[in-house]
């Protein structure tokens, strides 16, 4: 499969540099070719999105909703090929990938339904002959910049609310998820979305991402990716006074208290740490365990981690595939080497595939490092979790909050008072009792505190606030 750009309803192949995409599960297997765009391709997309805006914004919510419902139907019809392309391109296990496509379907339907919801307030005026009310209007042209780790769900949880609010979109996906992006855009096009409403431009963030943010007439930007890039995006947008949201990194903790039910806790901690090979912004990468249960927890964890195996992403029984790319593998392996040097191994999974075949990293739990060690402070974004003992609940909470990030945090306990205190005091945008750190529902607001997010939330109703602006209207009828 070759990548193409979708600009004003036309598929175009840029004439610049190309990159061969290899399957991270088996690097001898070529999946496709990416044709990288230049600044001039991005400018064309900018013109297309601006040109399509007036007509799209003038449609009723019901009319816009019909395109989202149709796209949702097409996602269901094409779930197998969509999941297959994504698994082959970025290594997420196929069964998990199909779940991700279904999440996208639910998001499309959820935001389609918002097209007909009353969305303003009537505010009493000082005169009885004045009707005063608020209404939502679109931002205009929005830039959507997405990472590779949720190649379908993240673009949809941005684009569906952006489109239903009447914005037009320029989408710059991550390089390692570009073929999936082409499939997604094809389905929007098949649903009959008017030309220019969604424009897809494939290429490098440092090249066309910068063009998009610095040169194109955009009215908003929604970014998900690393904290380092997100800070640059925010700075550029702030200089231009463009509305922005940046969803960034995490270093999420699961806190296991002495009274935790281990039969519930262990699967939730493992799923949080190792599903998607630990490449979720909400992945559990610190496991903080109260001393009184430390030994029992460690033994139970060892038993279960030893049953985890890595396998090719397209294996329907795969729990853990490879990491997404060579560069991702190199980064994660630096932490594995650090763990081999500085930490003590608690448990490691097994390989059901020759690890040399692709970008595989064995699931690993380590301990014995200080709280200032990079294994405890850095976002690793791979299947490596660090176990930290805590004397009591207070120390566990302090360790949980001892990070620059604040995306997600979970506590495992049977004591509702401690649980509720954790919900109050854990410094994270998403806090949970007896649930893994990953896997937040689409109808609820998603986002973090501290260095994990800027000032907005995604998904749920919160997304509609981001993608629209409020006008206060007054009518004198005396
Ligand atoms: P990344 O920051 O490298 O890239 C994200 C996107 O930004 C890509 O499309 C990339 O091409 C683009 N980009 C890169 N440089 C750019 C620039 N100068 N200008 C404009 N765009 C640019 O992140 P990644 O490696 O793709 O994703 C992994 C990161 O994403 C992790 O840190 C993870 O925690 C984070 N993430 C966060 C959330 C969340 O909701 N908080 C969700 C998923 C992933």
UniProtKB/TrEMBL annotation:
The keyword Oxidoreductase applies. It comes from the Bacteria. PROSITE patterns: ALDEHYDE_DEHYDR_CYS. Keywords: Oxidoreductase. One of its GO terms (molecular function) is oxidoreductase activity, acting on the aldehyde or oxo group of donors, NAD or NADP as acceptor. Residues 11-472 form the Aldehyde dehydrogenase domain. It holds the Pfam family Aldedh. The keyword Nucleotidyltransferase does not apply. Belongs to the aldehyde dehydrogenase family. This is Aldehyde dehydrogenase. The lineage of its organism: Bacteria, Bacillati, Bacillota, Bacilli, Bacillales.
